[in-house]
Design goal:
The protein has about 260 residues and is of the alpha/beta class. The chain has 7 helices and 11 strands. The longest helix has 17 residues. It is globular. The site of manganese (II) ion has 6 residues, from loops.
Length: about 260
């Protein structure tokens, strides 16, 4: 098995090292990851600048490269240019910070996994609750068990989003829940300030708020202390509306 590990926190993140550690005995591990933190860049790619690639020594990795690009850049570059063999699986993470509900759409961690699936390589994004003692070893062990399942066979196009709570020291994780993606998990606010030139500027701020999370969602299950696993897809088509929009007379707006 050949697997790629990438992330959005940057190649030096302990979260990435935790996944390599979890996988190294079961697969040949390639690492292609951003050279700095690219969190919350979603699925952006670099098209107006070159990508500089720097080989790195990384414990447990067959080969490792730091790239001056986004997580999606890294996966594309790995598949198209840097990894000389077909990849069996791409792991992204482990992100330091959860990617639940709408986070999925902002996350570079999840975008790297989405890029992999768009290139035909099954993938999993893993994120860990950010605390003083993030449960990175749990993420590594879950990556290993996902790899074992992949060896046994699983559905085409499988793309998983995994989130791991970090309970206080000594407290156990309650189990694993297979759940759907939830909605917004924050109470957002913009802090408005004034700069020395008298112009207003804004900082996005706020706090976690999962109080209204529906049962059966990742937001709810994580709040209850469970690891969450959500199978995702990347095509955003709303099939329920195809028929209705078909009935609109949009042709009437075309020039005759
Ligand atoms: Mn991140």
């Amino acid at each position: 098995m050949d697997v790629l590990v990438t992330n959005d926190d940057g190649i030096d993140s302990p979260g990435l090292a935790a996944l390599v550690e979890g996988l190294r005995e079961r697969a040949r591990v390639w690492v292609v990851a951003p050279n700095r933190n690219y969190s919350a860049v979603a699925h952006s790619i670099t098209i107006r600048d070159p990508l500089i690639v720097e080989p790195r020594e990384l414990p447990g990795a067959h080969a490792a490269f730091a790239v001056t690009g986004t997580p999606a850049d890294c996966v594309k570059l790995a598949v198209r240019a840097l990894v000389e063999t077909p990849l069996d699986l791409v792991f992204s993470g482990a992100n330091l910070g959860l990617n639940l509900g709408m986070d999925v759409h902002y996350s570079g961690t999840v975008a790297a996994a989405a890029e992999a699936i768009s290139l035909g390589v099954p993938s999993a994004a893993l994120s860990v609750e950010r605390t003083d003692a993030p449960a990175l070893d749990v993420a590594g062990r879950i990556a290993a068990s996902i790899l074992a399942k992949r060896i046994l066979g699983w559905p085409a196009g499988c793309f998983l989003n995994v989130n791991v709570p970090s309970p206080a020291t000594g407290a156990p994780i309650r189990g694993i829940r297979i759940v759907r993606q939830g909605g917004h998990g924050y109470r957002e606010e913009f802090i408005r300030r004034t700069d020395p030139q008298g112009r207003s500027y804004f900082w996005l701020s706020g706090a976690t708020d999962r109080g209204n999370a529906e049962p059966g969602t990742d937001l709810h299950a994580l709040s209850e202390g469970f690891v969450t696993v959500t199978p995702l897809r990347y095509n955003l088509t709303n099939p329920d509306l195809l028929g209705e929009v078909e009935t609109w007379d949009l042709n009437g707006f075309l020039p005759a």
